[in-house]
Amino acid sequence: MSPAARSHRRQQLSEQVAAFLQRDTHEDAELERLALEVFAFQFETIAPYHKLCRGLGRTPETVTSWRGIPAVPALAFKQYTLFADAPDAIIRTFRSSGTSEPGRSSAAHFSRAGLELMDSAVVAAARARLFADGRRTRILVLTPPPEQVPHMIMVHGMARLIRAFGLDGSRFVAGPGGLDFAALWTELEHCQHAGVPVSLLGSSFGFVHFFDWMTGLGRRLALPAGSRVMDAGGYKGRSREIGRDAFVRWAAERCGVPSTRVINLLGMTELASQIYDEVDGEVDPAGVARMKRPPPWMRTWVVDPRRHGRDGAEPVGDGELGLLRHLDLANVERPMVIQSEDVGRAVTRSTGGAPRHGFEIIGRAKGAEPRGCSLSAEDLAARPPRHADRDRPSAPGASAGGAT
Amino acid sequence: MTPPAPHSTPASAEPAAPRPPSAACWLPPALRASIDAMPGGSTLYRKRYDHDDAHLEVTFEQLSLEALGRVIEFLRQRRAEVLARRSVRDIVAVLDQAAARWLDPAYPPRRETIAEISFITGFSPEMVEHAIVEEQASSQGPHLLEALRNEIGNPAFLDGFQPNPRTGGSSRAYGPGLVGAIFSSNIPALPHLEIMRSFLVKSACLGRVSAGEPLFLRRYAETLHELDPELASCLAIIYWERGDTERERLFLRSIDYLVAYGGDAQIDRLLAARPPTLEGTWHGHRLGFTYVTREALAAGQDLRKLARSITYDFAIFDGFACLCPQVVFVEDDGATSPRALAELCAEEMARWTRELPPRRLDLADASRKHSFAQLCMMNDAIDVVSAPPDASYLVTIEAMQRFEPSGGDRYLRIAPVSGRDLERLIGPLPRQHLQCAAIAAGGAAGRHHELRELLASWGVTRIVPPGIMGRPSMMWHHDGLACLGRMVTWCDHELVVPELLLERDAAALIAEVEQDPSATIGAALT
């Protein structure tokens, strides 16, 4: 494919997917057709992905359904440049952590069209789930603004939410020095008295710190009707970990919002789209009956790499534990199917109508302890500086045999 | 040499439920009774080993400090009463019988032990059984005596004064009173080696079992007890939790010799915690590799057999032992290319998967193994020769910029080399980390010897042909050390002045003085 044809095709597919996002109904067959087209494009244009597909023996000639499209391990975003066009088409790169050192953080590259597509996906998913009631709220985000953390994809997305759904006064409330709890409290109290509904958005660990502060001072809010809380990103070791149900109860109690208005968002740097909780308030107001339900342009399925069939790792049955695998049509220019290390299970709910498919996250597939005593490359003291082999995957466990 | 086929019998990996939990610790019955009589002397608790929906419980025991003190006192006393009075040959005979029991497929505890160790470690039952057979085969009496001869000379030095012509007199050797051993879990059913080494030098043995493989030691102790309760009473298998510095300190303060297996950090910590005068032997991080010269790839060489042997070293213990190679260096200017050898190796890895099945993978392991293989596939610099869908093994070819461990788990990495690559890759590695190297040099003795000199000078402590890397003999100077030799201290009865030793026939002189000790002075002054 010539460079010009490649760019043209990328634009074209991005437009098709953007159109699909905006539809009211989303046919499975249409998703499959688009997914296979995007796959064929990515097979041609993302060199490491091409090599992976060849290695797995699954190419556009042999793959006939979206389930068979080879997944890229999320780790690959740390080690390879996975972008379906020339580097000069990249206008933004998001990273999974603050460091820009290769091999340490995942990098997701976006072209202008790719960024626009992601923005559409962010808004469409929020409209369907987080702001399904159509209510305008003051959106307060417990993170620094995008200018201060330009590499953070979550912050970029939240900026889009402010623009699309926020009342005047919506803003990022943290600065370079962190979050000023007292100032946030004052603002929330003001909203409470003025009857302005608030959407409090932030990282899960940020909420833990803020709620801890509130709890320490014996404070709680009774936010106006229509207020909500959305956390994302997990704890990342930056606060203590809190079980999902406990978090929901705590947030509902501290903010004075119904537990059905405490929503978690699953986002990954490797994905342009996000997956919200779907809360079935009728069934269980305590929030137990919640599952993650991908938007219509995504598919999430649960696989067990130990069982393999024609399409690679086989899906497990409802309720069985496995690893989450995501297909995101909005990843036109980055690999569309991502194999995560999140452990979860598929869930089907059929309250009030047709069965709906979702999943829940149980935890991370934590790297098992290296066996015996192990020697990592880092243990080998006398060594020349790393350079030529920088792109080499580190071995599973990256460890050598132990003492015998 | 072609490695042996693994022994049959795969016992089921899933232990039948429910049954009383197995115990990790073992004390001789008399000691057990005494500890049980101490209020709060022993607290039993269980650890649970989970795999998918099945689990196995193992009982561990925390001894009070007072009880641990009693154990130590008891073992010292038994050493004086039992070990000091028995001959080396007598002790060797019991150890030989123990090996015979474990080598007998019909030995009742064997089947259950295999199933339990397999469940806990994840190693396949076939692998655990293979390990037991390998370890016990080299634990037979003649091997033990030969190991003593190799490191001490005459085993009877440990029984009493024996003529020692080199000193012009007689010598006698003593092992430490109490050997304290801290074990690791990466090779199933290996830790009994240190019990044998202790008993061979007539030392009592106090072992701290590893929670990663907590069962074989207790089973082995029971075997010794069945065969010879008196000898077994010189042994105790205990446990304390990692981080329990109180018990660890008492242990380190009370033993006369420390044998420790573990990671570098663990060993460093132990060494820092031990009393400065406590001697010992420690086996930390080690690594090995295989080197194939162009001569081994020449026309007419049996490449299938070579591949079979190379891959055995990567399959045994699933590559998790320090005895397993991390990489195969292949000279790239032979008649056979590294790629052709890699393809043969892939076929043989598949065969070992059937014959000596790999460990069970939990979801996280499987995720990591699959991801790793896929990351390799994505890499331009890596040629993935074989990555089967079940991730049971992985064969790649990739140039090596600097030496790096592969992580085992049946990942066979071939690195083409030429010229002075070996010097560049291995030469700079810390000596203490180097252990085994397999050399395949065809019939080229000159190359073989040249490589051997190089590797030895860099710190490699064991050089073998491919296919026996995971099967060291008792005679190997384990990690370059005379493990038995360094445990003993000597008393030399010298009869003559040194210059006389060189002039006269020492044996005759000794005989003369033995007949008439009063001649000692005369001989000394002559």
Layout of secondary structure:
The complex is a heterodimer of chains A (404) and B (526).
Chain A: H1 3-22, H2 28-45, H3 47-56, E1 72-73, H4 76-79, E2 92-95, E3 107-110, H5 112-128, E4 138-141, H6 153-165, E5 171-172, E6 174-175, E7 178-179, H7 181-194, E8 198-203, H8 204-216, E9 228-232, H9 244-255, E10 262-266, E11 275-279, E12 290-293, E13 298-309, E14 312-315, E15 321-328, E16 337-349, E17 356-364
Parallel strand pairs in A: 1-16, 4-5, 4-8, 8-9, 9-10
Antiparallel strand pairs in A: 2-3, 6-7, 10-11, 11-12, 13-14, 13-15, 15-16, 16-17
Chain B: E1 22-23, H1 29-36, E2 42-51, E3 54-63, H2 65-81, H3 88-103, H4 108-121, H5 125-137, H6 141-152, E4 162-164, E5 169-174, E6 178-182, H7 192-200, E7 204-208, H8 216-227, H9 229-232, E8 235-238, H10 245-254, E9 257-261, H11 264-273, E10 279-283, E11 287-292, H12 303-315, E12 325-331, H13 338-355, H14 363-378, E13 383-386, E14 394-397, E15 411-417, H15 421-426, E16 434-440, H16 445-458, E17 462-464, E18 489-494, H17 498-503, H18 506-515, H19 519-525
Parallel strand pairs in B: 1-3, 6-7, 6-9, 7-8, 9-10, 11-12, 11-16, 12-15, 14-15, 16-17
Antiparallel strand pairs in B: 2-3, 4-5, 5-18, 13-14
Helix pairs in contact in B: 2-10, 3-5, 3-6, 3-8, 4-5, 12-13
